[in-house]
Give the backbone structure.
Amino acid sequence: MPFKTGLISYHCLLFKTGCVLRMLYMNKYPEIPADQLEKYSSAISLSDMEIFVFPELLYSLVLANIMSPRIWEWKNDPWFAKLDKMKPYKKIQRMKQFIIDNYEFNLDLDTWGLTTKESEVERFKPFMDEETIGQSNALFGYEGDKHYFTLDIRKHFGLDKYTSSIIPFWKTETLEAMDAFKFKDDYRVGAGECVSLSTLYAAALFIICDIPLEDIFLIATPLHSQNFININDGVLTNNRRLVTKNMWFNGTDLTGKAQRALRNEQVTIVANNTGFVHTVYPEATISPESFELFREKLDAFTTTDITYEILGNFLRERSEFQKCFQIKYMRHGKEQYLPIERAFGYEHGSPYKVSDNATRDKLLDQIDEYDFYTEPIENRIQINKLGDYLKNNPISHFDNESMRELAEKIECTKDMERKMSVIEGLVDFVHLEPELPDIGTKTFNGPGPIEIQPGAQREEIIEYLASLRESHPIADLAFYASRDLAVTDWGPFLKAGFERNPVVIEKTAGLSDDELIQTLENLTPESIYDGSRIAQPDEVWNFQRGDGLERALALSNVWKSRHPDDKLSLAVNDASVELSIGERVIQFTSEKGLTHQIEL
C-alpha cells in the first residue's frame, strides 16, 4: 500500500455514543482500510480478547517494547554492570531479579473498566463466532480443564462477580503503562498482567540478555501467557519468575502453579519472530521449522527419567500417594522405619530434602525417635530400596519393559488399584505433552521473519521495522501498539480512545461539566509516553497525568458521552491544543510536536 499525502477525511461510527467522528488532517501515512480498522485499533487497546482474535498483536507489542526508549535505559542501570561477562542463563537470572524488583503482577480486572459480552461479540463477529470465543475465553465462562488449579478458576481470577452480560476489559499494558502504575494509589512500583509481563520479558531477553529472537517463543493459553527460551535445557518465564527443567520437576507448590497452564489448557497461540500459529485459524505464519524446534525443545523440557530424586519430588507434589511409602533409617546401628509423610512434613523450613540423597539423613536425624517404627510398616513401599534400584536403572516412561520392572518393585502390591494409581501418577509427573495447535491442519504462509540481530541499536531497529511496514503486518502494527501518532494514521487511535475507555467517564460522572474541565486541566502535565507517542484517555485518568493533547482527548471522550449531539473540534498545532465546544475554547499546551485538526 503506497503512502498517501494530501487532505483526507475519515469516518468511523462510535459504538458507545452513536455519534460520527470526522478527522481532517494532512496525513503522510495510509488510511487504514475499513476491513482492517478493528485490528489496527485493537493494537492500541490490546485487550485479552483482541489478542485472541488478532494473534498478530501479541508480537507487535513485543516489537513496540523493543522500540521503546524506556527499556533501553535499563542498560545504564548499575544492576546490569558487567552483564556482558555473564553466561546467558546468568544474564536471564539477573534480568529476572530486576523485573521482580520493579514490577508487580496485577490482576485488578477493574483497572480498565467494563464492557458487555454483546458488544464484544458484535465487534468480532466478522472474525470469529461466539461459540469459539466462549470456548476459549474466561470472560465468556471458560473455566479450563475440570481439574484446573483444583479450584473454581473464575473465582480465583475474580470473574465470578461478573454474572450478567457485563464483563471487564482485560487489557495488556505497554511498558510505559506498566511503569506508570507507580503513580496509582497502593502500588509501590510498576505492574502488569501476564501478557504484559511476557511481552516485556521477550523484549528484555533480546535487548538486555542478547537472546536471539528466534529462540524466544511466546505461548498463550486462554488464561495465561508465558515464554519458552531455547537455551540450555530450556527456560520458561512465568509472570515475573523463571522455571528451569530441574525446577519443573522439583514437586514444589510454586512449580505446580507454574505448570498449570501448560498442564491443563489448550495452547491457543505460539509466536516468535518468524510468525504465529493459532489453534483456531487454518493459516499460520510461523516458520514450520521454527515451530518444530519449539515443539521438540518443549517436549524435552517437560520430560525426564524416573530416578530416586524424581520419585521423591513426585511424592512431594502428589501428597495423596505418600501413604504408600515409608523410609528406612539406621540409628545407632538399628533399622527404623518412618511414614514418609512425616519426613516431608519436616522439610518445611529445612534446607534438607527427602529427595536429596546427600541431605536426606540429616533431615531424618532431626526427627524425634518416637516417630519411627522398629519394624517395616505393612503395605508401605520402602523408598530406600526402590531408590537403590533406580540409582542404577533410571527409567523412561515410554520404555514398557522398564516400567513393568518398576511395577514389580512397588511392594504395596496387595492393593493393585493403589499400585496402578501410583504408577499412572508418576508417569504423568515425568512426562507432559502440552496441547499445542495441530500444525497438520494448517497451511503456512507468512511474510517472513523479523530479522533483528542481538547487539543492534534502537535507531537501527526502528529504521529496519519501518522498512518492513508495507510488506509485514506485524511490523506495521508494532507502530500502532507503540502509540506514535507522528508515524501512524490517527483513525485507529481515536476509534480505540472513544470506544474502549470507560474508566474516565465513570470516575468523573459525579462532576459538573465545569468541574470536569477544571479537573482534567489540573492533572499533572506530563505524559507517560515519550516524544509523539500518546496515552489513551483511561491511561490519563488512571495515572492522573497527561500531556495537553492527551488531556484534551480524555475530556473530549467524556464530553461526547455526556453530550453526544455537541460538536467538538480539536486543533493541534505543535505546542498548542485548542478544544472548541460550541463557543467555548479550552486551551492546553503540548510537547508532542503534532499538527492535526479533528472534528467530533
